[in-house]
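ESCALATION

Customer reports they have been waiting on this structure for their group meeting. Please prioritize. Original submission:
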Amino acid sequence: MESQNKNLIIATVLSVLVLIGWTFFFPPQTPPAPTETVAGSQPAVPTAEATETATVGALTTEAATEAAVAASPRIRIETPNLTGSISLVGGRLDDLSLKKYNETLAPDSPLVRLLAPVGGTDLGAAKPYYAVYGWSPAGGLDPALVPGPNTVWTAPADATLTPETPVTLTWDNGAGLIFTRTISVDGNYLFTVDQSVQNTTDAPVRLAPYGIVVRHGIPDSQRVYVLHEGAIRMTDGKLEETKYSNITKLDQVPGEGQAEILKGTENGWIGFTDKYWMATLVPADGAFTSVVKYTAASDLYQAEVRMPVTEVAPGASATVESRLFAGAKEWEVIKSYQDQGGISRFVDSIDWGWFFFLTKPMFQLLHWLHGAIGNMGWAIVALTLIIKLLVFPLARKSYISMAKMKELQPEMEKLKEIAGSDRAKMQQGMMELYKKNKVNPAAGCLPIILQIPIFFALYKVIYVTIELYHAPWLGWIRDLSAPDPSSILNLFGLLPWGTPEPHTMFFMLSLGVLPILLGVSMWLQQKLNPAPTDPSQAMIFAWMPWVFMFMLGSFASGLVLYWIANNMITFFQQYAIMAMHGQRPDLFGNIRSTFKRKPKSEPAAADKAKAAKPKK
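Update from on-call: job pushed to the front of the queue and completed.
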């Protein structure tokens, strides 16, 4: 038994050291430094394959200066949720900020920028990230006769894109083909792009429309294994996620470079997703091809939608409609696009994780509670209470079993005296004792086991859903998606110095109020029962609340709040049920015994006898 206790202590200490060491020395991978623009390179002209599906060449970075970007003609975008502009060079959607979201809680914090132009530091310091549309020539049509990424479109001088006023871009190739692009936007984050071509020649032309979301390098954010960031697409009901690191490992496709191509027959969408934001192309229902592509020379990531080749007869015209989602992954908005807009499985663009069967209903309940209460922090507390009520029947059985085990303690002590060192006899006696009194010793573990997937599901909800982004609770907790900003290192703001930044080596020592309350709540829960008689087990139990306090201290405040609420509800449940069964916990007695200095234990009887035995 002694060796087992030592092994248990060593295993516990090593586990904690591994967790702490991993946090210190292996923080989440940071992205590489921004890549330089490739001077003098030009976008490749789209070509068409003989398979009647257009193929789009890789768009390379342009040699553009700040002055050139500032001088480029633009159309303003102003909606209740978006602000930005469309560049008439290429007709690109390349300047978009989200009005409802700031980068930090600071009063002068800039808006979150989603899309950013090439070389346009005057429009923001973000890496270039934009959507571009066009036509691929087919049937031997000269590529110079179709608009490309550098084509300068024309538009009315006073045009502004709003939910009430779409804008129309026009380009005449001078050879009988007139291209128009009508862009409209709703009050949230969905753009509709109608691409049209009018053929005034005396011969048919064959063209295929496409849309591309281009990202120059990966975003400057911290990557964590529990969250997907990278390409995401849905093709005929099948969801596929490809992390940025895996996009760079795609196989070489002839004529494409590093790419992965999927053909859809019914519906789908493709784009890039971040933790809270997303830019996604949505083609019209019907056949399409989606492509994920990487160009190593210029560090470009591309998500493409290619639509079938269309033949336009002389004197006729053709129009193709597609949509672009560019904005925040708000559950209610995305669900409306899925239910009313017909975008298949669009709500799955939110990373629900392995426990999606728990995270989805859990988030919907949290969302409803937030709407009813008006405060996300109290909504988390209410959700915790509801979860505890749902698992109460199991918890009740567990606490009743614990009370019965306590009642059997005197008989267990007698059994130990009878069995002595005979373990087999001891085990057999215990089983008979449990069977006779109808006690299940494993029943106490069931609520803990059930709580593990619930904890991970709620962690996922709190971590990935934007509804907790900058959501306040009370007082100093102004962002439930971030760790508690208070710190014991400056006496919670009483001393005039700052605290370590999150994800730094010393942040784990910067305990806030919520992590401390977490440790205290776990400690109080332990005091419902006397400390284990075995000194090794007693030491492990004594340290556990404070180890968890440090481990969970850097977690999101919303998750720590859930854990505190869960501990306190469990505390009252256990106290009430055990009292009802005649085993009222001696809470204050157990607490007092913790602080009493224990006298040195007397030598065991066997040791006394050995010591009294005269030496030969």
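Sent to customer with the following note: Residues 2-25 form the longest helix (24 residues).
Escalation resolved.
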